[in-house]
Design a protein that fits this description.
Length: 57
Amino acid sequence: MTTESGKRYCVHCERVIEGPAEEIVVHSASGARPNEYRHPACGPAQAPYVRRSPYGR
């Protein structure tokens, strides 16, 4: 995401990106959505581990 001031924010950790950034191209039919950015070391958050009963309860 970019703002009026030109700052880029990481889509995963939501912090300002000051150095190099990986660009995520967002495809939309109208082209109105801006590209998103992330830190090279950031990635999608892992899903929390949910212990499930083998008996279905």
